[in-house]
Structures are given as C-alpha cells and as structure tokens.
Write a structure and sequence with these properties.
Blueprint (H helix, E strand, L loop, with lengths): L41 E7 L3 H17 L3 E7 L5 H10 L6 E4 L1 H9 L7 H4 L15 E2 L8 E2 L6 E6 H7 L14 H11 L1 E2 L15 E3 L8 H10 L17 H15 L7 H4 L5 H7 L4 E5 L3 H7 L3 E4 L9 E3 L3 E4 L6 H12 L5 H5 L9 H4 L1 H7 L11 H12 E3 L8 H16 L5 H12 L6
Parallel strand pairs: 1-2, 1-3, 11-13
Antiparallel strand pairs: 3-12, 4-5, 6-9, 6-10, 7-8
Helix pairs in contact: 3-17, 7-8, 17-18
C-alpha cells in the first residue's frame, strides 16, 4: 500500500460504498461462499502505486477477489509514485477516472472540494456488518466533520530500522523497541556517529574522520512532511492549531526538531543531504546494501526487507520529549463517476478485512485499520506471527503497540490547502537541509508565504 509520495503520505488504501451482499464479520473464520450471481460481468478499474513486491501482493489479492466473485473483473493499474498525482489529475480532468484507487492526501483534498468522491460515512453507517467504531481513530480523511472523502484500508507508522550485523560489528547495543526505553536524541546521535564510516574505516567520532569520503552513513531519512512530523510532534510542536486557523511550524518546538534533523547532515555528518540521497538507492535498498546502518522509515518496507532476507530489526524512534510515531496512509477513494458503487464497496470491504487479504498484512505491506487486530492475540498471530521475516522481534512493540498507544495522526489527514502548502514547505526547507539557513529563519519565512491559506 503505502509507499511515500514526496511531501505527502504515502502510503495508501481504498474507498467506500454500499453493498447488497453482506460478507460477515471481520473476525477469524471462513465466510460462506457467495451465492451464484446471474449479473453480467462488472468491470472495475483500480489504480495504485508501490514497489515491485507491492505490485505482486496487490495482483494476488485481486486474483483472490475475482475468484470469490467471478462476475467482477478488476483491472489493477500501477502508476509510478512520482507520476501518480499528475496522471490522476489528468484522468479526472478528462472524466476518465478509475472506479476507485489510492489517492494522495493533497490531491484528494483538492478533488474532494470539487465533489469528485462519494461520501464514505453514508455507506458504512448503513452497513449491517461494519461500523466506524471498529476502526482506529485516524483512518478517515475528511474536510467536513460528518463526511469522509477517503478511508485508509491499511495504516502505517514509523520506526527505526537497523542492520543487526552492523550493530554487532560496532559493539553497539541496538535501539530499544519499547517506548519507555526509547533512545534520547543524544544516544541516537552517538550511535549514528559510531556507525558512520569514511573510506579509511574511521567513524564520525574520530578526529581524522573525512566527511567528504563517507562510505556508510549512520542513518538515512526523508524530508517530506510526515517523516519530519515524527520529531516535530515528539518535541511538542505542531503544524497548525486545533482549529486549523494558524500555521505553527515556525514555533520554537517545531523549529528545534527540524534543526536537530538538519544537524544530523551538516553538523554530525551521519546522514546524507537530500541532494546526496538522489544518487543513492531507496532507503530500504540502502539498508540492505550496507550503505547505511539505520533508516527512519515507514512500516511498509517490511515487505521488501522481508522478501530480501535482510538481517534487520526495528526500534522505536528516538524521542525528544515524548515517544511517538506518526500514523499515516494515503487515502483510498471511490470516484463519484463510478457506474458500479456496490461492487466497489464489495472490493473495499474485501481489502478492509485482513481475513480476505491476509498476505498483504502478514508479508509486511499493511497494518490493519480494525482495532481488534491489535488486541486479540489470535488475530495478532495471524499477521504479526505468521511471517517472522517481515515482522522481526522488535515489530510488536516498536510498531504495533507503539501505533496503538502512541500513534499521532499525520498532518496529511487534516491539513487544508495541502497542494499549496506542502510544496512551499518542502522548497523553503532545502537551504536548511543544505546547512545554508537555520530552521527558525526558514520557518519564519514559510509562515509569511503560507499566510494567504489561513484566516487573516
């Protein structure tokens, strides 16, 4: 599902509508096979982004769905991450939208204001087998209190992924997996410096360390909205006030957190800049290749790391004031132009129910949106315990329990004018990541640039 889109959330899930065919509860056990259906074949088009492994997982899920419901044919269309918004916007402008699919939060907000999506609450509220209360609190995408333009069929969060063998070689204790034992920022920086090596094998603590000839970084991270929000929120900072009427990313708590991230690049020399990262592989591949010892990334990479047989584990993120993790996912939507809302809802319910697409969860791509799958030991075992390669020992505490107990709703779920604000923030923070400007100065300038999008 989720694979990040720069500055937004990446990750993703599906939409919603009403269904004539009840498909039972969402607990363990087999559902009765559906009765024979005399209706002519219904064709649905579903768009999504993701890695090669995600493509395989989605195709397998769709094949199982069509086997169960042979009168529905699903065309799953993968669109590359960087092109997704452009392609979907062009399709919408030409009135050629898919029936349903992944949706980035900033484009979704824009299209929702244009009435392009069906309201999902209207359908779930009359569904006999499913209710809002069964879901985690942060899965609905809304611009109005009682309307949901999108829903996450899966949810994601962040952790500190690390190569176990590299920690052992360096004689460093691995990062804790429990929130109450989370590394302080100072402990995190110390470990990152000990793990960063130049071409002579000297770490970043060594007086002769050559910052211009680094062969392995201590840590890598991305600089779009949700990764940096982990530390903004951990430090008590906010993007906006509770009413969404004031931009607050310039305040001291948020600015300090962003500056501390930038210092990993320019002061401690344990992480590459965004420009240097462009010449490097994706974070999960960099970890696999030993180009970095740690990455700050989303849980969806468990799919790729597990399939590749990487010797890794997961710790909770280092904390500033509080131990938190950002809960995120791209939205999934049903377009108002679909001719088959009932069948689209049927597909959505299929994907919402881990029983019907368990491989997507057990293989490490998705985390469930239903609360029971975090609290019922039998259900937990079906996705966390089923595939140790994709759910190493630290996963249960560092990701599953951390999300349930300390998850913080990502900014992509509720910030208005994302399509305008996110690019401004990303562009104006580049000098900070390059060490050319202090975070507080850049954020004060950003505050002025985004002021037109907030009440005056």
């Amino acid at each position: 599902m989720p694979r990040r889109m720069p500055v937004i959330i990446a990750g993703a899930a599906v939409l919603v509508l009403a269904v004539c065919l009840a498909i039972g509860d969402f607990g363990p056990g087999e559902r009765d096979a559906p009765a024979a259906h005399s209706q002519a074949t219904v064709r649905l088009r579903f768009t999504y982004w993701g890695s090669i492994e995600e493509k395989r997982a989605i195709e397998q899920a769709m094949a199982k769905f069509m086997e169960r419901y042979p009168w529905i044919s699903v065309e799953a269309v993968q669109i590359p991450n960087p092109d997704y918004n452009t392609k979907l916007l062009a399709m919408s402008s030409a009135n050629e939208e898919p029936d349903l699919g992944y949706m980035t939060t900033e484009l979704g907000e824009l299209l929702a204001q244009q009435g392009k999506f069906l309201d999902l609450f209207a359908f779930i509220d009359r569904d006999e087998n499913l209710s809002r209360e069964e879901f985690l609190d942060f899965v609905w995408h809304q611009i109005e209190p009682e309307e949901a333009w999108g829903v996450s069929i899966a949810v994601e969060c962040y952790g500190l992924f690390y190569r176990k063998d590299l920690f052992e070689e360096a004689g460093i204790d691995p990062p804790p997996s429990r929130a109450e034992e989370a590394w302080t920022w100072e402990e995190f920086v110390d470990a990152a410096k000990r793990l960063t090596l130049d071409d002579k094998g000297r770490n970043a603590h060594h007086p002769d360390f050559d910052k211009d000839r680094i062969v392995r970084y201590g840590v890598m991270f991305e600089t779009w909205s949700e990764p940096i929000s982990n530390f903004v929120f951990s430090n008590g900072g906010r993007w906006i006030d509770g009413n969404g009427e004031q931009f607050l990313l310039h305040e001291p708590e948020a600015a300090q957190a962003i500056q501390m991230l930038a210092d990993l690049i320019n002061v401690h020399h344990v992480a590459p800049s965004p420009f240097e990262s462009k010449s490097m592989p994706a974070l999960n591949v960099a970890l696999q290749a030993g180009l970095t010892a740690m990455i700050i990334d989303g849980q969806w990479i468990n799919l790729d790391l597990g399939k590749a047989g990487v010797n890794y584990d997961i710790g909770v993120l280092p904390k500033l004031k509080d131990s938190v993790t950002v809960a995120l996912s791209g939205a999934n939507v049903i377009f108002a132009s679909t001719r088959h809302p009932e069948e689209a809802w049927l597909l959505l319910k299929w994907l919402l129910d881990p029983n019907e697409a368990i491989d997507l969860y057990a293989d490490g791509l998705w985390m469930p949106t239903l609360k029971a799958w975090y609290t019922d030991p039998a259900l937990i075992d079906r996705w966390v315990g089923a595939n140790p390669a994709a759910h190493p020992p630290g996963f249960a505490d560092a990701m599953m329990n951390q999300l349930l107990k300390n998850g913080v709703k990502g900014i992509g779920y509720y910030l208005k004018h994302q399509a305008e604000i996110f690019p401004i923030v990303k562009r104006e923070l580049i000098p900070v990541w390059l060490g050319q400007k202090r975070a507080r100065e850049a954020l004060d300038e950003i505050r002025e640039l985004v002021a037109p999008y907030f009440p005056q």
